[in-house]
TrEMBL record:
The lineage of its organism: Eukaryota, Metazoa, Chordata, Craniata, Vertebrata. This is KIF-binding protein. Residues 185-212 are annotated as: Disordered. GO terms for cellular component: cytoskeleton. PANTHER family: KIF-BINDING PROTEIN, KIF1-BINDING PROTEIN. Pfam families: KBP_C. GO terms for biological process: central nervous system projection neuron axonogenesis; microtubule cytoskeleton organization; neuron projection maintenance.
C-alpha cells in the first residue's frame, strides 16, 4: 500500500509542477492565479489526509509547496489589488480574499515548522542541514505574511506586526548564533536584519555620535 500512496503523491506533484511551469509563461494574472489554485486543489486534500507518523517527509514537502503556492497567489492578488487601488479603494471582498491567502500560506509554513518539533512540542535549538534553508525561509515568509495582513482593528494589526517582528528576529538571532547557517538564506537574513534594525548598542552609539 505504501508504494501506491507514494506513487500517487509523486504523480500529483508532477501535475502541480506542470501547472507551475504553465503559470510562469501566462501573462494574464487572473489565469495564473487559477492555475495555482488547481495546484492547491490537487495537493491540499492529500496533505491533510496523510499520517505524519508514516509519511512525515512527504507531508513536509506538501506543506511547503502549499505554503509557497498560497504565497504566490497572494502576491498575484496583491498585484491586482494595487491596480485597483490606482483607480478606486479596495472593497471588503478583495481584502477578505487577500487575507485568506495570506493566512493560508502562513498556516502551512507554520505547520512545516511545527513538524520539526520534538514529540514534546519543543522546537529544535539546532536545525539539521536538510531542513535548515526551508526552516529559515519559512520563518521569513511567516514574518512577511503577518506584516501584510490587512485589519481595521489597531490591536489586531499590532498583534500581526509583533508576530512578524518575532519571526524576523528568529532568522537574525539563529544566524548570529550559528554563523554557518547564514549562507543557507543570505537574502532572507539580509532583509530580516533590515526589518529588525541594528542592535540597541549600535543605536545608542549612533545617537551619542549625533549628539557630539
Amino acid at each position: 500500500m505504501d508504494g501506491y500512496v507514494t506513487d500517487h503523491i509523486e504523480i500529483l506533484q508532477d501535475h502541480s509542477a506542470l501547472f507551475q511551469a504553465l503559470a510562469f509563461f501566462e501573462e494574464d494574472v487572473e489565469r495564473r492565479c487559477k492555475m495555482h489554485k488547481r495546484r492547491v486543489d490537487m495537493l491540499e486534500p492529500i496533505c491533510n489526509d496523510l499520517n505524519s507518523q508514516y509519511y512525515l517527509l512527504i507531508r513536509r514537502q506538501l506543506m511547503f509547496e502549499l505554503a509557497e503556492t498560497y504565497n504566490e497567489m497572494m502576491d498575484l492578488k496583491l498585484t491586482l489589488a494595487n491596480r485597483q487601488a490606482d483607480s478606486q479603494s479596495l472593497d471588503s471582498h478583495t481584502i477578505k480574499k487577500f487575507n485568506h491567502l495570506c493566512s493560508a500560506s502562513a498556516k502551512y509554513f507554520q505547520m512545516f515548522l511545527d513538524s520539526l518539533c520534538s514529540p514534546e512540542g519543543k522546537y529544535p535549538e539546532h536545525l539539521e542541514e536538510e531542513v535548515l534553508r526551508p526552516a529559515l525561509v519559512a520563518r521569513f515568509r511567516v514574518a512577511r505574511l503577518h506584516g501584510k495582513l490587512i485589519s481595521s482593528s489597531p490591536p489586531v494589526q499590532l498583534d500581526n506586526l509583533n508576530k512578524s517582528l518575532e519571526n524576523y528576529k528568529y532568522v537574525v538571532q539563529y544566524c548570529d548564533a550559528h554563523p554557518e547557517a547564514a549562507a543557507a538564506a543570505e537574502t532572507e537574513l539580509e532583509l530580516s536584519r533590515e526589518m529588525v534594525g541594528p542592535p540597541p548598542s549600535e543605536n545608542q552609539s549612533a545617537e551619542s555620535e549625533d549628539g557630539c
